[in-house]
């Protein structure tokens, strides 16, 4: 596992931050693929690493399991969840549909007060791109698209999109890796174009932009995975 962090200060623990600290540390390592799929998760080792009792460790692991980031096997061993590459085509189909329908609805139904929240998250996304902060990129991208979904006003779509974006965080990590974590400005501008279409209430344009945005992400990820598979085959892995 990764190098142990400094011990938490007792004052921090008194404020109940131990669980959140462990959860966020492990969540980030899993999403950034520093903890690879299939990596064993051991409560005793984690308690030693974070200098905490096993109770907050267990609570953090429960949160990670609820997000599908860790899995308990039939033999009761816990591992980092595998990425379901076999069903990626179905995942991509569902994700693309949600990009389109939520952006369309935002163009049709948004209220004036929805726009500042969307713009603020885009500003955070741009800052993350400029800083090459991958974890911030993944989280702010998620929040940006969910803000658009909320502007559309359909709670069922919001819930489904949340699930898909959360499940896809490690896949999105591969997307940014394909650019060596230096996302080209043209893809940042896709968000700007979507905001403009939403403000203009141009439903057709919003749909076109959302579909193109999703399509380029899917193509980039598929190309990256294919290249990685070819490299592994050449190396006999």
TrEMBL record:
<dbReference type="InterPro" id="IPR011711">
    <property type="entry name" value="GntR_C"/>
</dbReference>
<feature type="domain" description="HTH gntR-type">
    <location>
        <begin position="16"/>
        <end position="83"/>
    </location>
</feature>
<keyword id="KW-0804">Transcription</keyword>
<protein>
    <submittedName>
        <fullName>AsnC/GntR family transcriptional regulator protein</fullName>
    </submittedName>
</protein>
<dbReference type="Pfam" id="PF00392">
    <property type="entry name" value="GntR"/>
</dbReference>
<dbReference type="GO" id="GO:0003700">
    <property type="term" value="F:DNA-binding transcription factor activity"/>
</dbReference>
<dbReference type="GO" id="GO:0003677">
    <property type="term" value="F:DNA binding"/>
</dbReference>
<keyword id="KW-0614">Plasmid</keyword>
<dbReference type="InterPro" id="IPR008920">
    <property type="entry name" value="TF_FadR/GntR_C"/>
</dbReference>
<dbReference type="InterPro" id="IPR000524">
    <property type="entry name" value="Tscrpt_reg_HTH_GntR"/>
</dbReference>
<dbReference type="Pfam" id="PF07729">
    <property type="entry name" value="FCD"/>
</dbReference>
<keyword id="KW-0238">DNA-binding</keyword>
<dbReference type="InterPro" id="IPR036390">
    <property type="entry name" value="WH_DNA-bd_sf"/>
</dbReference>
<keyword id="KW-0805">Transcription regulation</keyword>
<dbReference type="InterPro" id="IPR036388">
    <property type="entry name" value="WH-like_DNA-bd_sf"/>
</dbReference>
């Amino acid at each position: 596992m990764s190098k142990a962090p400094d011990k938490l200060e007792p004052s921090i623990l008194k404020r109940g931050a131990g669980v959140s600290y462990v959860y966020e540390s492990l969540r980030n390592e899993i999403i950034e693929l520093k903890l690879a799929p299939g990596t064993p998760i051991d409560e005793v080792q984690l308690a030693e690493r974070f200098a905490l009792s096993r109770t907050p460790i267990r609570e953090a692991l429960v949160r990670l399991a609820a997000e599908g980031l860790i899995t308990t096997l039939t033999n009761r061993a816990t591992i980092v969840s595998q990425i379901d590459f076999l069903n990626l085509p179905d995942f991509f189909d569902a994700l693309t549909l949600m990009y389109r329908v939520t952006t369309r609805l935002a163009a049709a139904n948004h209220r004036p007060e929805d726009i500042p929240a969307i713009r603020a998250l885009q500003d955070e996304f741009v800052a993350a791109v400029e800083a090459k902060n991958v974890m911030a990129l993944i989280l702010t991208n998620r929040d940006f698209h969910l803000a658009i979904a909320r502007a559309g006003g359909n709670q069922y779509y919001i819930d489904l999109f949340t699930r898909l974006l959360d499940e896809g965080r490690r896949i999105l990590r591969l997307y940014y890796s394909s650019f060596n974590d230096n996302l080209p400005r043209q893809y940042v501008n896709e968000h700007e174009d979507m905001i403009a279409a939403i403000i203009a209430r141009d439903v057709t344009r919003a749909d076109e932009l959302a579909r193109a945005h999703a399509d380029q992400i899917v193509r980039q990820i598929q190309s990256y995975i294919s290249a990685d598979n070819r490299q592994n085959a050449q190396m006999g892995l």
